[in-house]
Amino acid sequence: MTDTDYMKLALDLADKGAGLANPNPLVGAVIVKQGRIIGRGWHQAYGQPHAERNALADCLENPKGADLYVTLEPCCHYGKTPPCTEAIINAGISRVIIGSSDPNPLVAGKGKEILENHGISVTQGVLKQECDALNQIFFHYIQTGTPYVIMKYAMTMDGKIAAYTGKSQWISGAPARQHVQETRRRLMGIMTGVGTIITDNPRLTCRIEGARSPVRIICDTHLNTPLSSYVVQTAKTYPTILATCCKDENKQSAFLNAGCQILITPVKDGHVDLKDLMLKLGKQGIDSILLEGGAALNWSALNSGIVKKVQTYLAPKLLGGAGAKSPVGGIGAKDPDHGFFLSLPAITVIGTDLLLESEVYPCLQES
Question: Where is the CMP/dCMP-type deaminase domain (predicted)?
């Protein structure tokens, strides 16, 4: 097997930590000695040992003289756990093969340097593109301190997210809806607006058995979320944040007593300041958010620049209706040159639907 083959195994291991390691990166490691795999490991959960230490603990024999394949540059600082460079050096590893460099200022090339200073051969950039893609969320979060926001919606082929009656269940098929649950499992937060809460009374939980549900974030400028809503009634079970501009302590008290957390932001265009909200959520360790908003919140999120990726579930249906809603509302762009530009989408077939995933480019939209 080649370096690429072993790194592919490490990537597969790393993905096992999805939804559990946040806000830490996903990392996998494989230890090879004389052409045999003697240890495997991944970062299983936040606060627990890193992939390299787990792989060393898994070794079937002494790893001295072995090669270590790891998807991300080994850490070299004390955090929740001791530095992995220390464990690698003490184990007598002779060569380390790295996928991605770590942009964390506490590491950022220092891990590689320390290993080389101790006589360990380091090869960097093996399957770099794949390793970088695995930690797109972590890289954004560690560099900006704000969550990586994915705007998700399902629409028909004529661009409708609901019929003219307002009914939207279901635009997409069961396999696509299950895929959404998997995305909820992987991300730390899920955000919607008070309008969606009032209209649909959603759960905003992950329906995958045994999986952690994301922190629920409701954008509610005036604190109009019904106390009888599911998100409020279950706030002591599933963490729930109400982002608001309302400073009325009497109004806040009922939500606080129900177990909700309240985050106050400045007013921006008559609504919650989404940029300020992202900074506050980032400080709480929330590294990623699935935005499942209505047309108005989607427009505000795009216009504020917080959306980094768009997931469009495209159903082979036509609904029509001049008044039927489209995914993005608001005032809209003044002309095609001032719209929000997306990268060429990655396209996945899920059941009878298509999933289109695009990065959001910096746009010319005037604020």
Answer: 1-123
